Amino acid sequence: MATIWQPPVRNTIALRRNCIPATWDSAPELRNAFVLSSSSESAALKLFIFQRGVRLADEIEIPESAREPKPWFPDEPTDELVAEIKAFVKETGTPYLWRGHTHTKPEKGALIRYKGEFDLPASHSGQKNRVRWSPCPCCKQRTPWFYKDGKIAWFPEDRLIRLIGPDCFKAINAQGHKEAEELFRAEQERKNTERFLLNHIGLVPEIIRAAEQNLTIIKEVDRMRAVLSLNLPRLIGFDLWQHIRADGVLKLEVTRTEQRVDRGGNAREITVQDFERYGPIQGGEMLHPDAPPIASRVEKQIELLKPINFSAFYVDRMNPDERRVAVKRFKAVRILADLFAEAEMVRRFLSPISLGSLNGWGKAENAPTRLYIGLSSDLIQLEIGKTSDSTTSIAFRPHFFDTLRAMPDIAKSIND
Ligand SMILES: [Zn+2]
User: If you measure from the C-alpha of residue 164 to the centroid of ligand 1, how many angstroms do you get, rounded to a whole number?
Assistant: First the structure.
């Protein structure tokens, strides 16, 4: 391809004869390279290439049927019609060929209502597909003009639908565009809110039930946290929380000797006390003495969900403000999921892997304390002490190790 352009070209005639390839229309990248590489030529020559390029490559054939006015839409377009248009655009990439589109310029004073937005498919998107962009009846009727954020515009007085570029009507009538844009956004918000509620409201009874079941487990996790954070320092004579709180890591004490040279130039050995990493410990938050109970936070979120424990039929009877308020309450579901994750993390302190780490560390020669921590085989007693033969028992209530029920995935916003 690169060989087609052979500078320097001596005159315009030579350029016209030799340099515009027969495949011009189907080779936009070639045309771009061609225009770019002409930059050393005279301005007149560049203009020639540019104009010729646009006319040959970019002109779109608009069938008479597209230009024909189609006053078929006296009523507000339905969601089904909007869906049909979007599907057609996605399928073909040619909004101007949709059966109901009228490819004529709207009047300046025409009343306009936006009913939807569309992007051309990937095959028609971006700079590299410029020749396949859509023309626009408002401003560029025969040349590629846009590929995304196109608008489905309904003209109620003319009973027409035009598929136009993003801000095209703004250039014709800024006030009319602004008003239509605001109405469209408000309508979108209303529809999305309603859809979100209808999609999620049915989940609420089960969410509340699951959260209440988890609450029994979480109350026991809170209780064990209170007991352990208070008693462990006393039982082993060591503040394990202070030891792990900064980095979640169990450490061993090491003593090193280092060579130092003093100001007089004399070398001497000094002893340095230091820690070395033993291993991470999961769920160290179990020992956090001032942690706020998780259960009361869960209860608060359950209370927020109770007022929206109603059936989908009721959504119809709500006004837009009530729907918006109801949607906000769904935030509780994600907060609950976070609280359950927190409880899960905290009780990992008593998981087999954490107990294994604690006991290994608690026996290590250089550990800052002795520690033994074990579970009875029936999982109802925790044994804690400096060694396995000097332990104190702490009783679990049932439920501590029960499985926490998961929360369903809830869309993050009404637009998802
Ligand atoms: Zn336009």
Answer: 6
pTM: 0.71
What is the rounded CA–CA span in Å between residue 375 and residue 272? 38
Spacing, Cα 92 to ligand 1 middle (Å): 19
Share of the chain above pLDDT 90, in %: 73
- Torsion angle defined by CA atoms of residues 296, 301, 304 and 310, in that order, rounded to the nearest 10 degrees: -120
165 Cα to the center of ligand 1, angstroms: 5
* Ion ligand 1, residue ranges at CB < 5 A: 136, 138-139, 165, 168
Measured in Å, residue 145 CA sits from the centre of ligand 1 at: 7
Asked whether the predicted pLDDT for residue 36 surpasses 70, the reply is no
CA of 179 to the centre of ligand 1 (A): 18
| Structure confidence by residue, pLDDT tens digits, 361-387 | 999 999 999 999 999 888 889 999 999
Q: Is residue 57 very low, low, confident or very high in pLDDT (cuts 50, 70, 90)?
A: low
How do strand 249-261 and strand 160-164 relate by DSSP bridges?
unpaired
Spatial contact of 163 and 177, defined as CB atoms under 8 Å apart: no
101 vs 81: CA distance, rounded Å: 12
- Give the separation between CA 53 and CA 30, rounded to whole angstroms: 11
User: Ligand 1 centroid to 70 CA: how many Å?
Assistant: 19
Nearest to 291 by CA among 349, 208, 372: 349
Q: In whole angstroms, how large is the CA radius of gyration of the chain?
A: 36
Q: Could you read off the pLDDT of 104-150 as tens digits, one per residue?
A: 999 999 999 999 999 999 999 999 999 999 999 999 999 999 999 99
Give the pLDDT confidence of 215-247 residue by residue, as tens digits: 999 999 999 999 999 999 999 999 999 999 999
